[in-house]
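Researcher: Structure for this, please.
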Amino acid sequence: MLLFSDCPFKFSMNYLYSSLIAALLLLACEPARAQSLTNGFMSGKSHGSVSLSTTQEWYQSVYLVPEKVDVVPIFRRIEVRSVNLYANYGITDRLEAIVSLPYVRSEGHAAAPVVQGLRYTNVREGLQDLTGILKYKPLTTELGSSILSLMGSVGLSTPASKYSSRQGLEYIIAIGNRATKLTASGIAHLQTSSGVFLTGQAGYSLRTGRVPNAFVAETKVGYAGPKIYVDGWAAFQKSASTGTDILQPGFDNFFPATRVDFIRLGVSGFRPLAQGVGLVVGASTYVSGRNVGKSTGVTGGLAYNF
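Model: Predicted structure, token format:
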């Protein structure tokens, strides 16, 4: 598979890029969707991948308004584990379909007397949200020895199970907000002949119910070589002002209606293992936020390409 068939230069990296598509995107499948499911690479017609990844996140402090608190209310500390199934397929060289489905387990560490007294549970788990995305590349242009690609994507995400997002403090360990989301984004991807690349994307996400809509953006810089891939990324979300803040005026204990803002930084790495199979690892952490836990996460998985 040659992703940049219209390039004036030729990378001897076809195998790397085919593995890379799955590897990059399986890193994006954390429960909070802190990183986008789309990037600047295209699979190519009739090419695709299937990947399975696992992510573990944990946090004890929470970004609230007006300041961060050091211990999660009720549950003290939260651990979130997820397993994500991801697949993508190139319908044409310029049109790609993406599907993602995570299973999430969220566990708190509330003391037994607290859990029993409030009739809460320390664990919530189940299938989270099924996401489908179409990505289209209308324009590719040469900039010297580099290639600039402009793309657009539209995605729909909806709950895949009847997981609970009930009102009250037990929502702190909910695995999702049970909203259906429609997200449209624009993507710009600059690929140099040396293997260094830069990707930026921005879009808007419409959510159903009382979940606030949000502006989402991401920037990524990295290197894709014949034997290794590395990148660093920053993801950003800014919720609409219609949302509320936890324990502030207007808050009625309905947590899905809160404004969730964040900046999250991460790194990713990929190494081919054999023809069509690769290993990926990554790590990320929140550096600022609003109504969100200050979580740190690590991810690992395998990607298979066809």
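Researcher: Any notable elements?
Model: Residues 1-32 have pLDDT under 50 and may be disordered. The chain is about 5% helix and 55% strand.
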